[in-house]
Amino acid sequence: MRWSARDVRSLAVGLAYLAPALVIFVVFVFVPLGKTFYLSFYNTRSTGAITTFNGIDHYIDLLTSETFRSTLLATGLFALYTVPVGIALGLILAVLLNQRLRGISVFRTMMASTIAISAAVGSLIWLLLFNPSLGLLNYVLSLVGVHGPDWLIQPTIAIIAVSITTIWLTLGTNIIVLLAGLQGIPEEIYEAARLDGARGARMFTRITVPMVSPSLFFLLVVDTVAVLQSFTQIHLLTRGGPVDATRTLVYSIYLDAFQNFQFGFASAESVVLFLLIMALTIIQFRFVERLVHYQ
Amino acid sequence: MSASGAAIARTDSVAAQRRRPLPIRKVGSYVLLTIVSILVAFPLLLALSYSFMSEFDIATFPPPVIPAHPSLDNYGKVLATIPIGRYLLNSFIVSTAVVIGQLITASLAAYAFSFLIFRGRQVLFFLFLATLMIPWEATIIPNYMTIRSLGWLDTYQGLAVPFMATAFGTFLLRQAFMQIPRELWDAARIDGSTTFRFLREIVIPLSRPALGTIAIYGFLSTYNQYFWPLLITNETLMRTTQVGIAQLRFEESLRWGLVMAGVIMVAVPTLALLVLGQRQLIRGLTAGAVKG
Hints:
Number of domains of chain B: 2
Number of strands of chain A: 2
Structural class of chain B: mainly alpha
Largest sheet of chain B: none
Strand order of the largest sheet of chain A: 1-2
Radius of gyration of chain B: 25 Å
Number of domains of chain A: 2
CATH class of the largest domain in chain B: Mainly Alpha
Order of helices and strands of chain B: HHHHHHHHHHHHHHHH
Strand content of chain A: under 5%
CATH superfamily of the largest domain in chain B: MetI-like
CATH architecture of the largest domain in chain B: Orthogonal Bundle
Oligomer: heterodimer
Structural class of chain A: mainly alpha
CATH superfamily of the largest domain in chain A: MetI-like
Distance between the termini of chain A: 39 Å
Radius of gyration of chain A: 24 Å
Strand content of chain B: under 5%
CATH class of the largest domain in chain A: Mainly Alpha
Largest interface: A-B, 100 and 101 residues
C-alpha cells in the first residue's frame, strides 16, 4: 500500500478537479454538521457565541420537555398524513395519465404543474382556500351539507391543513416519477395477465403495483425526507400553532434558534433531526425495500 | 423511443380488433382527465382568477370563481406596494449564479469520477454521495453563523455560494460522462490533447442534455427557496421573490387580490420553465427512481 510518485501525482490531478465542489461541501455541509454536534453540548449567547460547556443537558432537557413530545407528534402526524396519501393519489393520477390518447401531454403538463410551484406560492393560495369566510373550501363543503372546520385554528385540523397543502405541492413530482415507472412496464406483461383472465383491480394490485414498486419506494424515501424538512408551509399557514400543533422539528429549530436565540438547544434539536432522517432512511432501505420488485 | 413506438403499434392492433366499444371509453377518458386536471390545477387557476378581482368582489358570498369585473388593478397595486421588479432581479441573479456554479463544479467533479483514475477516488465519491444524507436544515445554524461572520448577510454571495455544489448533479453527470466511448479518450491522448481540453472540447459538448437537466433543476430549486433567503436577508432590496411576496401575508390588512397578483407574477417564470424544460426536468426527477 505504498504511494508511488505517480499515485501522488494522479491524486493531485484528481483533487484539483474535485476541489471546487469539495471546498463548498466542506465549508457548508461537513464542517457545519460537525459544528452542530459541537454546539449542542454548549450554552450560547444570543449572538451565538459559546459561553459554557453544558454536557448532554440540552438533550436531557429536550427529551423530558412537553414541547418536544408534541413536536415529535406533530412531525410524525405530518409525515403520516402527507406521504401515504400523496403517493397513493400520485399513483391513481399517473395511471389515469398513462393512456395513449391524442393530446394526453396537455393533461400531463397540467397535472404536473405543481412541480414548478414554490412552497411559498402554494401556501399563500391554500391560505386563501382555508379562509373560513372567503375561502372556497368551506363553501364547497357546505354545498354537500358539511360544516367546514376552522382549518388553521383547530389544533387537530391545522396539521391536516398543512398536510393537504404539502400533498398538493408534491403531487406533480409524484405523478412524474410514477408515470415514468408505469411507462417502463412492458406491454407483454399486461397482455399475458389479460390472457390469464386478470382484469381491473386484480390487474392493478398484481401487476401494476409490483411493477412500479421501485418508483413507489423511491418516493417513500424522498417524500419522507422532504416532509421532515418542510418549513415554508408551516411558517406561512400556521407559524407552528395553534398551541404548537404544527410545531414540527424543523419549525422548532427555527423558533428556538432564530426567535429565542438558544443556539445550543436548537443545535441539539438539529442533531435529533439529522439522526431521525438517517434512521428513517436506513429503516426504509432495510425493511421496506424487501417488498420492492426490481426487474 | 423505438420500444414505445412498438408498444403503440401493438395497442393499435388490439384496438382494431375491438373498435366498437372504444369511442365511448375514449370520451369517458377525456371527460375524466379534464375534470381531474382542472381539480389538480384548480388552486393555481383560482389564484389567477382572483388576481383579476377587486377586494370587494372577493368578499362577496358565495365566494366567486370567475371575476365579475376583471381588471389589472391588483398588478398595478403590487408594483406600487413592493419592489417586485427588484425581487425578481435578485432571484434571477442568485439562481443564475447557482446554476453556473453547479455546472462548473459538477462538470469538473464528474470528470474526475469518470475519466481520471487515482487512488482514493472511491472514498471521495462516497463522500460526495454522503452529502445527500445530510439535511440542510440540520446544518442551518452553523451555516447562518458562517455567512454572518463572512459579512455575507444581505448579499448575493450569501444567497448563492452555499448551493454552488451539487452531489445529485455530479452523480447525474458522471452517469452521462460514462456513456462517452473510452476510444475518444484514447484517441485524444494520442493526439496530445490535455486532460482539461478533452473535458472542454469533447465531454461537455457531448453531455448537453444532462447539463440542461442540472441547469433547470438548479434554477427551479434556487428560485423557489424560502427558508434560507428569509434567514439571511433583512434589507428590503435584497429580498428574493418568495420572501418578498410572503411579506404581503404579514401585512396589517390582508388584501387577497393583491397577494394573488403577486403569486402569479412570481410563479410565471417557473411555470414557463416547466413548459420549456419539461423533458430535462422529467429526466432529472426520474434518474433516481430507475434503479431504486
